[in-house]
Design brief:
Layout (H helix, E strand, L loop, with lengths): L1 H14 L5 E6 L1 H18 L4 E6 L2 H9 L5 E5 L10 E15 L10 H4 L3 E4 L6 H11 L7 E4 L3 H10 L4 E4 L6 H4 L2 E3 L8 E8 L1
Length: 203
């Protein structure tokens, strides 16, 4: 709770300026899950503030923070890789699930060692969901996927996981979204799923 309050103090500092304006970068996953609710609460609490939103992948978010393009970011990442110039205020954790084309899934669970034979949709960001998934696979003594498709775009990942046999790591909560659940299904695996911290990153 103290960490959440520290994040709130940082935001209040930004909003305490004469002409309050906050530029926020949010990852597509956060936007899909809770952006509308977050906006409603923000405007109720700070009715005079101007809010500018940027939809950005993690690989874009951290450089935007460092060059001042955004004031803060709401994202899921491994905070241990952040440099001393950025701070992370945790808000919770997100469970990462695996998703694939609904029509291809058989009753699980699948062995993780079998799934790595399929193509996986990952990106090269050093701190995000894909990095957590790579660590998770290695922690279970399983070789890395034989074939990966570099795919930092959430929308492209959704399309490919709906139309091909590719495996797509995805926040588990997103599978409850009707526009996603209609085309993909969760791939049950024989090991516990990984989690990733969600929070606010500030300069």
């Amino acid at each position: 709770l103290s960490e959440i309050e520290e994040a709130r103090r940082s935001v209040r500092h930004l909003l305490g300026r004469e002409h309050p304006r906050v530029t926020v970068a949010a990852t597509p996953a956060f936007s899909a899950l809770c952006l509308s609710d977050a906006l409603e609460r923000f405007h109720a609490r700070y009715p005079l503030a101007q809010l500018s939103l940027r939809d950005a992948f993690l690989s874009q978010t951290l450089p935007m923070l460092r060059d001042g393009s955004v004031d803060l970011a709401i994202t899921a990442l491994m905070p241990d890789i952040l440099g001393a110039d950025l701070s992370f205020e945790p808000l919770g954790e997100i469970e990462i699930s695996l998703a694939g084309q609904r029509d291809l899934q058989r009753p699980g669970p699948y062995a993780l060692s079998d799934l790595v034979a399929r193509p996986w949709l990952l990106d090269s960001a050093a701190a995000g969901v894909s990095a957590v998934v790579r660590r998770w696979i290695a922690a279970h003594g399983v070789a890395a996927p034989a074939r990966t498709i570099e795919c930092p775009s959430s929308m492209a990942s959704m399309v490919l996981s709906m139309q091909t046999d590719a495996v797509s790591p995805i926040p588990r909560a997103m599978l409850s979204q009707p526009w996603i659940a209609g085309g993909v299904a969760e791939i049950a695996v024989d090991v516990p799923l990984p989690w990733i911290p969600l929070g606010i990153v500030l300069r």
